[in-house]
Design goal:
Helix content is about 40%, strand content about 15%. It is α/β, with parallel strands linked by helices and about 290 residues long. The protein folds into two domains: about 20-140, Rossmann fold; about 160-280, Nitrogenase molybdenum iron protein domain (Rossmann fold), CATH 3.40.50.1980. Strand 7 and strand 8 form a beta hairpin.
């Protein structure tokens, strides 16, 4: 009888720890307890988990997760869109965190794994995802982390002279040509820095553009990674763009580009990189 009672009490205690988290799909994912073995398949999710103090719970990441340094030693599960399912299963994770664009969500669930789809695309999404991760991890730090991010972006904006406000900016994600639109987290940061994005919100967060669109828009300044900037001046018609003609092109290093294109805890640092670019290259800047 005593053993039965002890078992019942243990079961009740375990049940009391169980909780449910809603993901991007609107799916309610029940977790019996805060997960201790986590696989992340999106760099921004990796960075957010670590910033929330749970880096030691990561057992595997996608091949692009490279910050903080501690994650570089973790097993890599391949690309986030189409990762190595067998390798993930072998790690026996309590939960897998991945993007909506991943092709393995249903397969992982079929194999019995808990899966949470979390993919921030704008500032509000970043805050919401941090809240969800805080719930998953059982930490109260999510709002503190968001306030730090928001304050860092605000401080970056305050450091810029009002004269940069008239600049029209084109931010290229890659040379396919995909761009950051006004409604993306990058576009929202540019708006807070008081510059004008040439890609309107109506085109979506990260639209694929006809290169002629950029030629017609004739931006004052271009932001692009060194990985995508090769041959930029040789693109048809681009030599006549104001930014190219006047040398107002910021070419970010690979590490800087990683900071800029990941919607997570380093968005304040990303804003500072944009500020440095604007100070050096913008019309009316301080450089």
């Amino acid at each position: 009888m005593k053993r039965l009672l002890a078992g019942l009490l243990a079961a009740l205690a375990l049940a009391a720890q169980a909780y449910t988290v809603s993901d991007e799909r609107g799916v309610q994912v029940e977790l019996p307890r805060p997960p201790q073995r986590i696989v992340t398949l999106l760099p921004s999710l990796t960075e957010s988990v670590c910033t929330l103090g749970a880096c030691d719970r990561l057992v595997g990441v996608d091949r692009y997760s490279n910050w903080p340094d501690a994650v570089r030693a973790l097993p890599q599960m391949g690309g986030g869109i189409d990762p190595n399912v067998e390798a993930i299963v072998a790690l026996k994770p309590d939960v897998v965190l991945l993007a909506r664009s991943s092709r393995v969500t249903q397969r992982l669930e079929t194999l019995g794994l808990k899966v949470l789809v979390l993919e921030p695309k704008n500032h509000a999404d970043v805050r919401r995802v941090l809240d969800a991760l805080g719930q998953v991890l059982g930490t109260q730090d999510a709002q503190r982390v968001w306030r730090t991010i928001d304050a860092s972006v605000a401080a970056a904006a305050q450091s810029l002279p009002a004269s940069v406000a008239r600049n029209r900016v084109y931010f290229e994600i890659n040379n396919a040509v995909y761009a950051a639109g006004e409604s993306s987290f990058i576009g929202e940061t540019l708006t807070r820095l008081r510059v004008k994005n040439i890609v309107p919100a109506s085109m979506g967060p990260f639209p694929k553009l006809n290169p002629e669109f950029v030629v017609r828009a004739d931006p004052d300044l271009i932001m692009v990674s060194v990985r995508s900037a090769q041959g930029l001046e040789q693109r048809p018609g681009w030599s006549g763009i104001r930014a190219v003609r006047e040398g107002r092109v910021c070419r970010f290093s690979a590490d800087e580009a990683d900071v800029l294109v990941r919607p997570g805890p380093r968005m304040g640092e990303a804003a500072q990189l944009m500020v440095r670019c604007l100070q050096q290259k913008a019309r009316g800047g301080t450089g």
